[in-house]
Structure formats: structure tokens, C-alpha cells
Amino acid sequence: MPDDVIQDRLPPSKLGACTCTDIRRVARRVTSFYDSALAPAEITITQYSLLASIGRAGQLSHTALAEKLGMDRTTLTRNLRPLTTAKWVTVASGEDRRQRLLQLTAAGKRKLNRCVPLWEKVQSQFVHEVGAQSLQELRKVLRLVESAVASASSAEE
User: DSSP string covering 106-142, please?
Assistant: First the structure.
């Protein structure tokens, strides 16, 4: 299909740019910023978030962690695999043998302790650049967006 036909079929929207595209672009840049800061510890921000969430809880179920981080269980399983392979996270059965309980190993606690100062530094840089008040407002808007998407999704079902 010639380019001019595609451009004719995709005129500028009266609704503006795609919100999802904008959010994903910014999320990729923020992720890259945090990943670069955590690189000396050979860990990504996703892995750090998993370790920190498990570490804060002490022990939590696979399902609870997925809900807390807004991940589907398949994505969570894929993201946990390198952490279990590195022996930073252990998975045990709960009272109900179907329940999978996650907790940090001694090596996982050491890894997290090594990463916390790196995370604190990048978090501080981010807060400094964005501003504490703007960050508060951003978090408020993000909660609003998350709620709106949840409402719209449940209305479709």
C-alpha cells in the first residue's frame, strides 16, 4: 500500500496523540534511567522491585505479588525465573500445596542490600529533577489513570 494511502487513512485524531503510546514511551525512558543506575549491581529495576517487594513482606504468595505489582501471573513467573535461578528467591508451598510462597534467600538479602544504595541514589536524582510536589501530583494522576482503566475494563466485561 503506498504511503500516501496510509497517511490518508490515518489523519490526525481529534482526540490527540495516543495516550498509551505516550505512557509507554515515558515508562521505557524511566526504566532505562533506573536500569542504568542499577547496572553496577547487575540487576534491572524490575528485578529490584521484585526483590524489594518480597523483602518488605518477608514472605508472600505469587498471587499477592502479582496483584501488588500489577503483573499477570505468567509475566511474574517469567520475571521471577532469573531470581530463582540466581538463588536470590526461593519458592515454597504454602498450607494449600497449590499456593506458592516467595521469600528471599540469604543471597537475595545480600543482593538487595547491595542494590538499595544504588536505588536510593537514582530515586533521589529523579525526585530532584521532577520535584517532590510534581512527583506527588504524578502519583495522584497515575492512581487516577489506573482506576479509570480498571473501571473501563470492568465495564467492557
Answer: HHHHHHHHHHHHHHHHHHHHHHHHH-HHHHHHHHHHH
* 1, part of any domain: no
CA distance 103 to 109: 10
CATH number of the domain that residue 34 is part of? 1.10.10.10
pLDDT in tens, 39-58: 999 999 999 999 999 999 99
> Could you give the CA distance from residue 157 to residue 151 in angstroms, rounded to a whole number?
10
Rounded to whole angstroms, the Cα distance separating 109 from 92 reads 17
Query: Closest Cα to residue 37, out of 130, 140, 114?
Result: 114
Number of domains in the chain: 1
Report the DSSP beta bridge partners of residue 102: 60, 91
In a domain, 69, yes or no: yes
Cite the DSSP H helix spans in 13-72. 19-38, 45-57, 62-69
Q: Is the pTM of this model over 0.70?
A: yes
In a domain, 2, yes or no: no
From residue 9, alpha-carbon distances to 5, 16, 144 in Å are 6, 16, 33
Residue 100: which domain range? 17-156
